[in-house]
Amino acid sequence: MAKQDFYETLDISKSASQAEIKKGYRKMAIKYHPDKNPDDKTAEENFKKAAEAYEILSDDNKKARYDQYGHAGLDGPQGGGRGGFGGGGMDMDDIFSQFGDIFGGGGGGGFGGFGGGGGQRQARVKGSNMRIRVKLTLEEIAKGAEKKVKVRRKMQAEGVSYKTCTTCDGSGQQMRITNTILGRMQTAATCGTCSGAGEIINNKPNDADAQGLLIKEETVSISIPAGVTEGVQLKVGGKGNEAPGKNSIAGDLLVLIEEIPHETLKREGTNIHYDLYVNFSEAVLGTSKEVDTVSGKVKIKIDGGTQSGKILRLKGKGLPSIERYGTGDFLIHINVWTPQELDKTQKQFFEEMSDHQNFRPAPNKSDKSFFEKVKDMFS
């Protein structure tokens, strides 16, 4: 069954601004919220779909990929895929943890007016995200890589314990009732005692901070898919800073990819360019050369009479597409090295050959100009 268009899910146009996307999500989240639709599986499914649509469309990189390729552009590991919603289905805790961005205040906030259900939901606080940079060689990008990095992140101290906040009874919110000319209005605000966590410190070890956290070093394994590009951001869920409380969830570790420039190879999208220099005799007589590609050594044949500027294309020897749309090519640019110093015999030979008909430039119609070669290279 085909997936519903994300823009249709949020009932917005494809040209919607970020503010309109946020507004559309807020509208759908309120409409299908579980507290407003208890034991309604259809409403719960629509609630998850709205959260997934917002998770993609609120991220400029994921939105651009979705606009270009549709759902197919999100099925691979590109740029972290669908984040916390990909593959294994939706996690309601993850959805509620991001409501602070949409409705203000702590996670799950703003729903206290729905028949009392929202005000009793246990608060869940998410820790802050952490960002690191990982450098990759062209060979690692071609094959994918498993990197282990050491990170220092906040974690709950051993022996720390928490108890339910007595001010908000664990909801993370304080309800206020105000009399207006329109009647009594009920509003929810973040609890000032627990800062929206729903829990407060019960027992704190001496080496922990005021929230019961301390900084620990941990080795994190990062699986990097083949074909990533400079600037792509991957997400390792739950490896950011932890938050206080028994019901809290850890933030994410955001990994920014940096590409280490190669000494001889130049990347252009999924294609790779290589400058191969041959001497005058090799260009005239022809030769065989062994070339290092990102997938191993390849032996190529250079025909006699090869002109400088000729491009040899090795299909499928470039980099894989992160969107899984095939593999690029390896383009070899032939450069004929002209001798800069000649001895007397060599100089005499070329002087004798200068007027020979075989040494006169006579390009065929099939010989493309430099501009035509550049055009073919990018086609």
Q: Main beta sheet, described?
A: 4 strands, mixed
CATH fold call of the largest domain: HSP40/DNAj peptide-binding domain
Domains (count): 3
By CATH's scheme, which homologous superfamily of the largest domain applies?
Urease metallochaperone UreE, N-terminal domain
Radius of gyration: 31 Å
In the predicted model, the low-confidence regions spanning at least 5 consecutive residues are 77-90, 103-120
CATH architecture annotation of the largest domain: Sandwich
**Tally of separate helices:** 10
Distance between the termini: 35 Å
Write out key terms for the chains shown:
379 residues; alpha+beta; Helix Hairpins; HSP40/DNAj peptide-binding domain; 3 domains; four-stranded mixed sheet; three-stranded mixed sheet
Task: Please summarize what this structure is.
The protein has 379 residues and is of the alpha+beta class. It is built from 10 helices and 15 strands.
Task: Please characterize this protein's 3D structure.
The chain has helices at residues 6-9, 18-32, 41-57, 60-69, 92-97, 99-103, 138-143, 280-285, 344-353, 370-377, and strands at 130-136, 145-156, 161-164, 173-180, 183-190, 199-203, 213-224, 233-236, 253-259, 265-268, 271-279, 287-293, 296-302, 311-314, 330-337. It has 379 residues and is of the alpha+beta class. It has three domains: 1-90, DnaJ domain (Helix Hairpins, Orthogonal Bundle); 113-257, HSP40/DNAj peptide-binding domain, CATH 2.60.260; 265-377, HSP40/DNAj peptide-binding domain (Sandwich). The strands form six sheets. It has a four-stranded mixed sheet. Strands 1-9-8 form a three-stranded mixed sheet. Strands 2-7 form a two-stranded antiparallel sheet. The chain starts with 5 loop residues before the first helix and ends with a helix.
